[in-house]
User: What shape does this take?
Amino acid sequence: MARKPNPQAIRERAAKTAQAMGGSGGVAADAPKKKTSLPQFAREVRAEARKITWTSRKETWITSVMVAIMVVIASVFFGIVDFGLRVGVAQILKLANAG
Assistant: This one.
């Protein structure tokens, strides 16, 4: 049989969680921002740019072919749906005009 939750324990856990998250309802308190100089900013940008990994020519080719195949499949699907809806609406309009 399941135990009933203890409301006091739930409140204590919620208070601990709120304190760990910053105390303001889950929103972290705004920390003062450090001012960075332009040369330091440029160094950080270059360091981040060095972490970029580019895809190989083969990976790019395979991805491009897959995208092209999906475009063809989607266009065929929507063409069939469009044709079906066009024929269905035409038949409904024929029935409405005949009556």
User: Anything to note?
Assistant: The chain is about 70% helix and 0% strand. Residues 1 and 11 are 23 Å apart (CA to CA).
